[in-house]
Amino acid sequence: MIREAGDRQSHAMFLHSSNEMYGADRILLEIVGSLPVEDQKNTLVCLPDDLPGVQNGLGKELDVRGIENISVPLAVIRRRYLSFSGLLPLLRRLWMTYKLLLAERPRVVYCTTSAMIFCLPLARLAGIKNVVLHVQEIWSPREGSVMGLFARGASQIICISRASLDSLPRHLRSRSVLLINAHRESGLPLSPYLSDSEALQFVVASRWNSWKGHATLLHAWDQDRSPGDLVILGGSPAMGTGVDVPALVASVKHSDRISVVGEVSDIAPYLDSADFLILPSDQPEPFGLVLLEAFARGRAVVASDAGGAKDVVTDGRDGKLFQMGSSEELAACLFSLSRQDAEQMGANARVTYEEKFSIASYGERFREIWCSVSNDGSGREDAHG
């Protein structure tokens, strides 16, 4: 849904850094869907126009839900702009974003990821007092020292995990709140364990970024015997450093026990066919939304013991945690599992999902935060949860 900026003043403007349908994109859908009805009618979602070759997945879904959105030159932090040759394009995007903010003058500006952090001072400069930053990343100390300067423009900061919150500079934590992610169920009936195979069935679903741990996972498979059968979902990232997953699979001893499926529109059927989901990331995941997808389907997980996974998985109850980056410990973990473990932990995982990660409870918590932000006409910079 495209319109000319400034045709109607928005109550809230959401500035987003991608136009795909991965974790942060789906969280944006849930955030907007949790808004009070009247605020939804006066919301504008701004999507970037600088991702050639990326399907308009998020924009199409926003259209389906009747949420107004436009594709514009946004000031998004990307590697190609943080160079001498990228300076002029970045300056142009800063100017265009500022003009958009001036034209719209929304009551609330909501920067949905840290990649939109340049927009915080721009919103302040445009006279907008209520400015929200949703941190869906873990900041390194170096990133915190730099981005912390821009984040001073936020009147409210929302973090998706304790790891994300703890990574912020100390001076920002007083205006920060924790909003643990949630997942909307697919609507498919829950599937019992139907496998008649003696071997355990595993699935991994993520973009093929270099830090997502595919090499660690496949090293765990490269043993004298295979831990089971593995299905790999996902695809190469639109941005960042990718890894050639099919080539890695071809080099593994038991490649005949591994199926590379690639991108799929819905991972629920693959979860239903699996005993466990694996999240083998070599760096701490800010959250790991796919863990909730597995829990919602009643499937246990095996995950690296860092980052947002520690907010989701109780080791030994609804999944297993292993030392991040250790293919040896991952292999030992996989070989220790049984189908009885899968059934018991999977049942516990479903209970965990219902008690902690349902969309209903997420929406209630978000609306509490939203009301404190959108009703604060003074835009106090010391607002905190």
> How many beta strands in the DSSP annotation?
13
Structural class call reads: alpha/beta
Q: Main beta sheet: strand number and arrangement?
A: 7 strands, parallel
Shape: globular
Walk me through the structure.
This protein is an alpha/beta fold and 385 residues long. It has two domains: 12-182 and 359-374, Rossmann fold (3-Layer(aba) Sandwich), CATH 3.40.50.2000; 200-356, 3-Layer(aba) Sandwich (Rossmann fold), CATH 3.40.50.2000. The protein is 37% helix and 16% strand. The protein is built from 15 helices and 13 strands. A seven-stranded parallel β-sheet has the order 3-2-1-4-5-6-7, sandwiched between helices. The protein is globular, with a radius of gyration of 21 Å.
Short description:
The chain is 37% helix and 16% strand.
Brief descriptors of the model:
385 residues; alpha/beta; Rossmann fold; 2 domains; six-stranded parallel β-sheet; 15 helices; disordered N terminus
Summarize the SSE layout with pairings.
Layout (H helix, E strand, L loop, with lengths): L11 E4 L7 H12 L2 H5 L1 E6 L8 H8 L3 E5 L14 H18 L3 E4 L7 H7 L4 E6 L5 H11 L4 E4 L2 H5 L9 E3 L21 E6 L8 H8 L6 E6 L11 H6 L7 E5 L5 H5 L3 E4 L9 H8 L3 E5 L4 H4 L6 E4 L4 H10 L2 H18 L2 H16 L11
Helix pairs in contact: 1-15, 4-5, 8-13, 11-14
